[in-house]
């Protein structure tokens, strides 16, 4: 796909997203919020996995740190911005501290360590009643108004809140796009390709991994802190290791080597889940098969598969262009 | 003091489930280099099959246990040959992801086939009753579990140290190419090791049915425990898995006694600490 | 003042002392070959000097500074680069990116997260000029992992030189090359060394390469220096001949 087509597709996508509350039902808007949250989480995760080569099974922990922190802030001080920023910052700090310890290892040991840290966060969410509300979670979290520069914007409807999430997601994606194309991004890919060679061109491998881990944690935390104002509650299952798999699956589904992959994956995952759930409660049965098929046959993910099709038949208008670039 | 000792014994018997599942997990990792997320689901399948064959169909307990082991071992062979084999040589992340897909599939499949939570079938008559230990009645079934765990441990030791097959497996684990050059059929070794590990997980699951409720979530709960143990014992280290199982079983038993709120946190903190300070495991020589 | 001085380096792996009291000195501007039979500890010695491994004992001074415990990346920034015996490029990055990442790392630009790589114009020019010098101008956009073996060897040399090192350690730069490619690589190293004033310390098995390249040779055996001197003297050295012939007999 050439540059101009990409631009147009991107503009079309943004237009659709902006007009969505006008043309779509409340349910579609609600679903899109979930796509955007998972997309943010997955885009952050892919900086760690696709770019830096580290598979984390603890992203749910940082998602939960963001969500619980935001919920506690909003319960005490009903203003959206401090909640979301506070949640993101708390997740970033948690990722910085736990990342400092985790990046000593790679591959399986790294995955195990992040799993352990994630589950430590889960057990806190589950058992530390005084702070987290235990297995009941935190309830009655307000969708607090957005207060910015003396302006107070109440967010009574999902449609209004959607725009907050959309702005956050677009900002997050644009920033990540820049990071990936910066010298830092190049250095991270170098670390992924060969840790030893990277160290011997003068790159501080551990610090670079820590940066990627912290940024990924902050993205998970941002997505997490945008959740409680939508749902008005936070409960421990969001922190469980099985929840960590969601950004992993979205990224894998869309493709780890393309920038848009995690976003496409988040879209497909949320929509497919919504559709399949109408026919059967056994949604993860289907998902399990999809994962196995992807790993065995389509490790490049959907984006690579579609690009492959587009290459073979250049005349065909690429149908998935809408999701590209995001 | 007696409370402590008694609590320790309770911990030891629950350590046996942990031992059975981690033994398989660590053998498979040691030989194939695959960390099998789905190993907990194999435990769960063993439990469901054991429950059905013993509790519903009414087969004798021992027969039900052996039959579920055989069934899960066959499934393990199919997974290894059909799904994992194409992934050897790729980044290990893909193996993790594949077995994770299997977790989703198998756990949901169990829900589809067996539905929600079940009643616990009665303990077989010959294992009912109790013995008196430290002035308290100690269930005979727990003693049976410990005996089985010890027996499996001894059996594995004989199998790996005293048989031709064990030597072939150890040679394959040490150096695949060299083993193949020596005429060992390494694909066959991989399959048989995966089958053995699966059967051990199923044994643990089937043995748990008379005392623990079977539910779709037990696989996910067991696998993280097994991960903790194999990490503490050193990935691929069978002796370490045994010692790690005892340690975690007993510690979480005391943990429930002393920090009921933070037992889970406690074991994961130990796992993280071992990974950070001694990634080769506490029991590596 | 010597460029590099190593004193009493020791490194054990279990019961085996791979490097056992090594003393080496490299002067600015020379090209030194480190040779020795298999298992003499040459690669371990390079790994200690480059910071890939830390020694159990001994000291390493680079331009007068004690760098014994510095991590590899910090040594690169002080002017000490290397190549590897088992070829090590960044396989999924393009040939140009392979050089760019080394150049940007040298310029301490890797911390820039929000400006695109293409904003570093000079780095691009430098990378393209070096690609041309290496004879890889046509493959700038090709992922390094898809390059031919000989091309990857030259690219790796380019990566090491992109750090603008004062001292470049080369671990068997010609391994896996055919005789023709070997001669080409030899010529390339010589030309690059002259143009840049780089000092080389080369571990090499191929004696033609060694004698064609080095002004001074250091012979290692059993983890320490057996002999050193100009190539002709080494060729005549009885101890060296015994070690080699004894090995090969």
Secondary-structure blueprint:
The complex is a heterotrimer of chains A (326), B (285) and C (249).
Chain A: H1 3-23, H2 26-51, H3 59-76, H4 80-102, H5 107-127, H6 129-132, E1 138-139, E2 146-148, E3 151-153, H7 158-181, H8 183-193, H9 195-199, H10 205-225, H11 227-231, E4 233-234, H12 241-254, H13 261-279, H14 283-297, H15 301-312
Antiparallel strand pairs in A: 1-4, 2-3
Helix pairs in contact in A: 2-7, 2-10, 2-12, 2-13, 3-4, 3-5, 3-10, 4-10, 8-10, 12-13, 12-15
Chain B: H1 2-32, H2 39-56, H3 61-84, H4 92-114, E1 130-133, E2 136-139, H5 140-162, H6 164-174, H7 176-181, H8 186-208, H9 218-233, H10 238-258, H11 263-277
Antiparallel strand pairs in B: 1-2
Helix pairs in contact in B: 1-5, 1-8, 1-9, 1-10, 2-3, 2-4, 2-8, 2-9, 3-8, 5-6, 6-8, 9-10, 9-11, 10-11
Chain C: E1 4-13, E2 16-26, E3 31-35, H1 42-50, E4 57-62, E5 65-66, H2 72-77, E6 80-82, H3 95-106, H4 121-134, H5 149-162, E7 167-171, H6 179-196, E8 199-203, H7 207-213, E9 216-221, E10 224-229, H8 231-236, H9 238-248
Helix pairs in contact in C: 3-4, 3-5, 4-5, 5-6
Q: Measure the end-to-end span of chain B.
A: 33 Å
The radius of gyration computed from the alpha-carbon positions of chain A, rounded to a whole number of angstroms, is 19 Å
**Number of β-strand runs of chain B:** 2
Which class best fits the helix and strand makeup of chain B? Answer: mainly alpha
> What fraction strand of chain A?
under 5%
Query: Could you report the average pLDDT of chain B, rounded to the nearest whole number?
Result: 87
Largest sheet of chain B: 2 strands, antiparallel
Q: How many DSSP helices of chain A?
A: 15
What letter string, H or E per element, gives the SSE order of chain A? HHHHHHEEEHHHHHEHHHH
Quote the beta fraction of chain B. Answer: under 5%
* Low-confidence runs of chain A: 313-326
- Based on Cα principal axes, name the global outline of chain A: globular
Largest interface: A-B, 42 and 41 residues
- Write down the secondary-structure element order of chain B: HHHHEEHHHHHHH
């Amino acid at each position: 796909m050439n540059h101009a087509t990409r631009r147009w597709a991107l503009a079309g996508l943004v237009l659709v997203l902006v007009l969505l509350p006008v043309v779509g039902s409340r349910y579609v808007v609600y679903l899109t919020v979930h796509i955007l949250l998972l997309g943010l989480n997955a885009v952050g995760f892919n900086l760690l996995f696709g770019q830096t080569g580290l598979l984390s099974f603890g992203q749910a922990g940082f998602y939960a740190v963001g969500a619980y922190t935001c919920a506690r802030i909003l319960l005490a001080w009903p203003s959206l911005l401090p909640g979301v920023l506070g949640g993101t910052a708390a997740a970033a700090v948690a990722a910085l501290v736990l990342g400092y310890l985790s990046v000593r290892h790679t591959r399986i040991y790294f995955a195990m360590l992040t799993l352990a840290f994630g589950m430590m966060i889960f057990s806190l969410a589950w058992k530390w009643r005084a702070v987290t509300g235990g297995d009941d979670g935190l309830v009655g979290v307000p969708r607090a108004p957005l207060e910015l520069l003396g302006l107070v914007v109440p967010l009574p409807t999902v449609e209004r809140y959607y725009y907050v999430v959309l702005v956050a997601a677009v900002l997050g994606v644009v920033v990540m796009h820049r990071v990936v194309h910066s010298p830092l991004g190049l250095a991270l890919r170098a670390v992924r390709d060969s840790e030893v060679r990277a160290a011997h061109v003068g790159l501080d491998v551990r610090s670079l991994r820590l940066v990627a881990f912290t940024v990924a944690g902050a993205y998970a935390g941002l997505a997490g802190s945008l959740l409680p104002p939508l749902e008005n509650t936070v409960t421990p299952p969001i922190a469980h290791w099985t929840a960590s798999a969601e950004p992993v699956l979205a990224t894998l589904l869309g493709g780890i080597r393309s920038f848009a992959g995690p976003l496409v994956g988040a879209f497909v995952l949320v929509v497919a889940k919504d559709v399949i759930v109408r026919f059967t409660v056994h949604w993860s049965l289907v998902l399990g098969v999809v994962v196995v098929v992807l790993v065995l046959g389509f490790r490049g993910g959907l984006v690579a598969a579609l690009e492959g099709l587009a290459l073979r038949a250049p005349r065909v208008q690429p149908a998935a262009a809408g999701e590209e670039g995001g | 003091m007696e409370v402590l000792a008694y609590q320790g014994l309770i911990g030891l018997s629950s350590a046996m489930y942990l031992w059975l599942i981690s033994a398989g997990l660590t053998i498979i990792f040691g030989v194939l280099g695959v960390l099998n997320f789905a190993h907990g689901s194999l435990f769960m399948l063993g439990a469901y099959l054991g429950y059905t064959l013993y509790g519903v169909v009414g087969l004798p307990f021992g027969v039900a246990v052996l039959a579920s082991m055989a069934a899960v071992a066959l499934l393990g062979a199919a997974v290894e040959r059909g799904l994992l084999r194409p992934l050897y040589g790729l980044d290990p992340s893909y193996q993790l992801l594949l077995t994770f897909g299997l977790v989703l599939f198998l756990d949901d499949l169990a829900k589809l086939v067996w539905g929600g939570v079940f009643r616990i079938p009665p303990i077989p008559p010959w294992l009912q009753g109790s013995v008196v230990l430290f002035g308290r009645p100690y269930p005979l079934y727990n003693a049976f579990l410990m005996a089985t765990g010890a027996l499996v441990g001894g059996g594995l030791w004989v199998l790996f140290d005293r048989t031709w097959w064990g030597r072939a497996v150890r040679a394959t684990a040490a150096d695949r190419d060299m083993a193949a050059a020596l005429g060992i059929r390494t694909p066959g070794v991989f399959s048989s090791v995966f089958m053995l590990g699966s059967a051990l997980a199923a044994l643990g699951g089937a043995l748990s049915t008379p005392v623990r409720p079977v539910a779709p979530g037990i696989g996910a709960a067991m696998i993280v425990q097994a991960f903790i143990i194999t990490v503490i014992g050193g990935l691929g280290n069978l002796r370490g898995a045994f010692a790690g199982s005892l340690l975690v079983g007993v510690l979480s038993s005391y943990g429930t006694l002393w920090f009921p709120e933070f037992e889970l946190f406690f074991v994961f903190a130990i796992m993280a600490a071992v990974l950070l300070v001694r990634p080769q495991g506490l029991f590596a020589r | 003042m010597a460029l590099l001085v190593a004193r009493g380096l020791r490194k054990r792996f279990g019961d085996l002392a791979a490097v056992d009291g090594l003393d080496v000195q490299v002067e600015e501007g020379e090209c030194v070959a480190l040779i020795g039979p298999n298992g003499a500890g040459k690669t371990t010695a390079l790994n200690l000097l480059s910071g890939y491994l830390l020694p159990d004992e001994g000291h390493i001074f680079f331009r007068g500074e004690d760098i014994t415990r510095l991590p590899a990346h910090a040594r690169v920034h002080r002017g000490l680069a290397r190549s590897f015996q088992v070829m090590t490029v960044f396989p999924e990055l393009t040939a140009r990116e392979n050089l760019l990442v080394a150049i940007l790392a040298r310029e301490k630009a890797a911390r820039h997260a929000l400006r695109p790589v293409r904003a570093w114009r000079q780095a691009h020019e430098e990378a393209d000029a070096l690609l041309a010098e290496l004879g890889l101008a046509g493959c700038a956009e090709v992922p390094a992992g898809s390059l031919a073996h000989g091309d990857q060897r030259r690219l790796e040399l380019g990566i090491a030189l992109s750090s603008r090192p004062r001292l470049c350690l080369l671990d068997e730069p010609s391994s896996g090359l055919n005789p023709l490619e070997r001669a080409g690589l030899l010529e390339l190293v010589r030309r690059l060394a002259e143009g840049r004033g780089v000092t080389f310390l080369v571990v090499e098995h191929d004696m033609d390469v060694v004698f064609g390249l080095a002004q001074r040779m250091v012979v290692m055996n059993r983890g320490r220096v057996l002999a050193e001197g100009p190539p002709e003297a080494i060729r005549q050295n009885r101890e060296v001949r015994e070690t080699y012939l004894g090995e090969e007999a």
